[in-house]
Structure formats: C-alpha cells, structure tokens
Specification:
Order of helices and strands of chain B: EEEHEEEHHHEHEHEEHHEEEEEEEEHEE
Oligomer: heterodimer
Shape of chain A: globular
Shape of chain B: elongated
CATH architecture of the largest domain in chain B: 3-Layer(aba) Sandwich
Distance between the termini of chain A: 22 Å
Helix content of chain A: over 70%
Number of strands of chain A: 0
Structural class of chain B: alpha+beta
Radius of gyration of chain B: 24 Å
Helix content of chain B: 25-40%
Largest sheet of chain A: none
CATH topology of one domain in chain A: MetI-like fold
Structural class of chain A: mainly alpha
CATH topology of the largest domain in chain B: Rossmann fold
Largest interface: A-B, 18 and 26 residues
CATH class of one domain in chain A: Mainly Alpha
Chain lengths: ~260, ~350
C-alpha cells in the first residue's frame, strides 16, 4: 500500500517539476515548426552543426584515450597523492567553464606556459582554432570518462587479473582481452556522457577558442549569437540540442534513472 | 624433487610458513580449515602472492619470475572464467597469451575441451554453464598450454553435490595423465583422500603434518588431523591394569586398551590413541557378552557421504562411528536417540611416546 504524501510536498514537488519542464515546453511551443527544416539546412546552421559534431566527437575520443588510462591509474595505483590527483581530475566538472577557459589561456594560449612553447617549437596555435575548441571541450568532458571508468575498474574482481597473469598474459594483453571487455558498459556510458557534455560546451570554448564561424562556433555559440538577431533561428538550433540530450538520456536510462 | 616449496608469506600481522615437496606424477593435497593459509600458499607458488623463500620447479628458482612466465597451470576456485570470452576463447587464452596463432590455439583448445568437457558448447558464455561445467572448462584452460606444474584450488567449491562424483572421476583421470607435480588445495577430506598421494596439513599458517592418507589416519599429529581423516583421537593418561591391559582416561571417560609390548609397564601421563570409526559398533540395546569398551550416549549428528554414514555421539569420550546407510536405517539411528557404542580393546591404537610416527 502506498502511503499518502503531505499536501505541501505534492505542491512543492509539482512546482519543481514544472520549473524543469517549462523551458523545454517553451522551446517546443515557440519553435518555428514550419521553417525548421529550412533554418537547420541554411548555411550558417549547417556549418555550426557540422563543426559541433566534429568537435564533440574529437573531444570524446581525446577524453577516452587519456581518461581511461588515468582512471586505471586512479583505480589500481597505490601512490601518495592519489586522492589529490582524483580531486584535480574532477575539478573541471565543478569549475565555472569561463574560468576553465581563462585557465586554458594561461596554459595553452599564445603566451601560455605551454602554449608559447608549442608555438615556438611546433608552430601549433590552439587559440581561435578548431583544435582549441576540441581542447576546451575535452577539458570539461574528461572527468565524466574518468569517473565512470574508474567506478568500472573498481567493481572488477581483481582475481581475474591475477588469473590472467598466471595463464601467461602480460598486463597489456590482460587489459585488452579481459579487463576492457568487462568494463565496456561503464566505458560506453562515460563516453556518451562526455560527448553530451562536449556538445553543450560554451563558456570554456568562447573564452579560449573564441567565436569564429566555421572554426570555433559550435551550436551553443551559434545559438547565443543568433539569439540577438533571429530568435526563431536560435530556438531551432536549441531544439537540436534538446533532442540530442533526450537521446542520451534514453540511451543511458538504466544508468541514470536507476530504473529499468 | 621437481617442486620444492619453502616459503614465508606476510599477510597483515600473520605469517604463513609452508614447506613441502612434490615429485613428478605425484598429487599433494594442501588441506586445512578456511583461513589456514592454503590458498595463499598456492597463490605464492603461482606467483600472485608475495612470498620470500624458495619455490623451485625442476631445480629452477621461480621466486623472482613473474607469474606469466612461470609456466604453471592453475584451475582457480570459482573457476574464474573470463565472463566476456566464450568457453573456447577462455581455453585458448593461455595459448594466445603465449603467442600462438589464432587458428592453432583454437584447434588445440577445441581438442582439450572435447576431452575434458565434451558436453559444453565451445561458443557458450561462461555465465550459462553449471558449476561443474565451469570447473571442467577451468581445468581445460589450466592444461591447454601444457604447463609443467598443475595447481587446483578448491575445484569442488562451486559444484553441487550431484556433480561432485563425476568431477572427481574426471579429476582423477586428468591427474593420472599429467606428468608433472600436481598440488590440490581443499578442505574436503573425501576429495583429498581420493585424489592425493600425500597430504600436507596446514593449521594457522603452519604445516602440522605431512604424510600419506594412511599415515595420517594411523597417527594423526593433531586434533584437526584426526578430524580430517575421520579418526577418533584420544589424548589422556594411561595406566596398567591387568595382564597386558591398560586403562586410558580421555575425554571424560575410560577406555580399555591393549598394553603395547614395547612399552614399559608404568603409568604415562600424556598419551595419544586413535580408533577408526569403522571399528565402532552401535547397538540400540545394551550389548550382551563382554566387550569392555561400551559407551552410552545420544546421537548428535548423522552425516551421509556416499553409502556411508558418519555418526557423531555424545558419549564420554565423544566418538565418531561409521556405518553403512543400510545399518543406520535398520537400527533406526536418528539424532537425539540414545545408543550404545562398543569396540574391541585391540582396535584402539596407542601412539607410544618417544616413538615418532613415521609420517614426517
């Protein structure tokens, strides 16, 4: 039997739900449904969409390539300062993105501590380039891969690794054949979350990489700029991000809502 | 001997010190209660637990060799099959890890599987197998790369009662065809006695006795050893009574024993004796005639293994008797019932002080 909830809770909860739902409803109601295809296939929107896809996928790839080994080190390492390292890796999750952008400028900008060196030696400039947008998106999304993968590694029975070693497998072979397949669900979940985060990245990108159409202007930046002149265009682009976000939720529904 | 083990393992504030040797073609069972250190000792031999001392196979020291280069086959407790690999891929794993080509590894794995687990679908995932099937696949995986040493860790732990005899038969056949030394870790007397040539008893991180099952049965060194081989062990004092007869006071009761000829006729304060459970007869009425050793007490527990029943009696001293299940049914022996246990004096075997039983 279900117990009745106090009326005050029902009212407050309903307000909370409406608060979350209304912006989405607003977007849907005000959307220029008649012209939406035309807007999204227009040259400006297409450029932003293509760039967003490119940047977010590359950022996800970088997050996985660097984040998974980092998660392994955090899960299995026994060195001093591991807790500090973990806190550092999670920091981008809670850092205001604009602060992340300022930090990235100091590190990788043209006069940054590593950036100046990069430009002098390798001739690589990250600010105002698509690569810079990828760096900014990677910075904010890598913690999601690390957290998810580390949880996966930690949940593994360490006896499997030892069994593999006794059966003659070197650590790399064990990782490839035994461990990574076992944590694949967590790796996929981490990658999908990282991709969603990279797709929506705004503050760090605009601060570090700028807002250059065709080079660093991803969909969120395009929405921000379009909003000043063409509200319907901004709504149409926003709806694309809403739909993609909902797709991520559906794909990860078991993991996020905790229900089947 | 081909396998020499003399190691110490530090486990928190516990030290496990184990030494034993195993010859080619010999099966040694490391036995002990849970937590005695037997699995840890096995892991140290395999190279996955840190140990100091000596582990040598055919004279070659292994102690500094990483586990993947020791060339040891291990069937783990709970099988530990890799869940994301098929049965075939699991068995091919050690071959692939050693650098064998894909097709060659698969062919060899299939051959081993056909021999040891013919009823198992090679393409199945381990999660779909029964405990017994998983253990068969684990055995195939341990043997696939033709190791020089075979280690089996509690191979029956995850196998249900019906599957055990079949797996035991398979293990006996497999062990017999494996040329190198074999080590079996178990806490189960039936497994140890039916599969091992020699027992190494571990108690609290120390070896307390080493010997063939018969040697341990005849002269268990400790109470655990006696329990393990299913022998009644009496520890008490002995004094002469009539001609050639003595009284052993142990466990709150008195037993009449035959005085050993080689023992001086004087009271002994500290003596040990064994009595095989099969030599104890049970009666539901007080027995007639004149058996000297008759003890009355309630049945505490009846445990059936195969066609034999082991009956724990609340007598003084406490006794364990072994009967056929047929006799148990015929006599109507059930827990709680009062019975008389009797045995002949000649069946109680005294371990004469100063004479080391030839088990070490």
């Amino acid at each position: 039997m279900q117990r009745r909830l106090p009326l005050s809770f029902i009212v407050l909860g309903a307000i909370g739900a409406a608060f979350v739902a209304l912006p989405v409803i607003g977007l849907a109601l005000r959307a220029p449904w008649g012209r939406i295809g035309e807007i999204l296939t227009g040259p400006g929107a297409r450029t932003a969409l293509r760039l967003s896809l490119e940047v977010s996928l590359l950022a996800t790839l970088c997050s996985v390539v660097f984040g998974v080994p980092l998660a392994w080190i955090l899960a299995r390492g026994t060195f001093r300062g591991r807790a500090v390292l973990r806190a550092l890796v999670i920091l981008p999750l809670v850092l205001p993105p604009v602060v992340a952008g300022v930090g990235l400028l100091q590190a990788l900008g043209r006069r940054g501590i590593v950036g100046s060196w990069l430009e002098r030696i390798a001739g690589v400039q990250l600010t105002f380039t698509t690569a810079g947008a990828v760096v900014a998106a990677t910075f904010v999304s890598i913690p999601l891969v690390v957290l998810s993968a580390e949880a996966g590694f930690r949940s593994l029975d360490p006896r499997f690794e030892r069994a593999a070693a006794v059966l003659g497998a070197k650590p790399g072979y064990t990782l490839r054949r035994v461990i990574l397949p076992m944590v694949a669900p967590q790796l996929v979940a981490g990658a999908v979350l990282a991709w969603a985060r990279a797709l929506g990245e705004f503050g760090a990108t605009i601060t570090f990489a700028g807002n250059l159409e065709g080079r660093t202007q991803t969909v969120p930046l395009a929405v921000f700029q379009t909003l000043q002149t063409d509200q319907e265009g901004a709504i149409a682009l926003s709806l694309v991000l809403v739909v993609l976000s909902i797709c991520v939720l559906v794909a990860l529904r078991d993991r996020i809502t905790g229900t089947g | 001997m081909p396998l020499n083990v003399d190691i110490e393992i530090q486990l928190g504030d516990r030290t496990i010190a184990v030494s034993f040797d195993v010859a080619d073609g010999e099966t040694v069972a490391l036995v002990g209660r849970n937590g005695a250190g037997k699995t840890t000792a096995l892991e140290a031999v395999a190279g996955i637990a840190d140990a100091t001392g000596r582990v040598a196979l055919d004279g070659r020291s292994l102690i500094d060799v990483p586990p993947e280069r020791r060339g040891i086959g291990v069937a783990f407790q709970d099988a530990l099959l890799f869940p994301k690999l098929s049965v075939l891929e699991n068995v091919a794993f050690p071959l692939r890890a050693a650098g064998a080509g894909r097709d060659g590894a698969r062919a060899r794995a299939l051959a081993v599987l056909r021999d040891l687990a013919p009823a198992v679908d090679p393409n199945a995932r381990p999660a779909t197998l029964s405990g017994g099937e998983r253990q068969r696949v684990a055995l195939a995986r341990a043997l696939a790369a033709e190791p020089k040493l075979l280690l089996l860790d509690e191979p029956f732990a995850a196998v249900d009662a019906e599957g055990k005899p079949e797996l035991r038969t398979l293990l006996r056949r497999t062990l017999a065809t494996f040329d190198g030394p074999r080590v079996l870790v178990t806490h189960d007397p039936v497994e140890a006695m039916t599969l091992a040539d020699r027992l190494v008893l571990l108690e609290d991180g120390r070896v307390t006795q080493t010997g063939t099952p018969d040697q341990v049965r005849n002269a268990p060194a400790t109470r655990y050893a006696a329990e393990f081989v299913g022998t009644n062990l009496f520890e008490g004092s002995l004094e002469p009574e009539d001609e050639g007869v003595g009284i052993l006071r142990a466990g709150g009761g008195e037993l009449t024993v035959v005085w050993p000829e080689r023992m001086p006729l004087a009271a002994v304060a500290d003596v040990r004796a064994t009595l095989s459970p099969a030599e104890i007869a049970l009666h539901t009425e007080e027995p007639h005639g004149s058996p000297r050793n008759v003890f009355r007490g309630a049945v505490e527990e009846v445990a059936t293994v195969g066609g034999r029943a082991r009956i724990r009696l609340r007598t003084a001293p406490p006794l364990v008797a072994e009967l056929t299940t047929g006799s148990v049914d015929r006599l109507g022996i059930v827990p709680g019932r009062d019975v008389w246990a009797s045995c002949k004096a000649v069946e109680i075997r005294l371990m004469v002080p100063g004479e080391e039983p030839d088990t070490l």
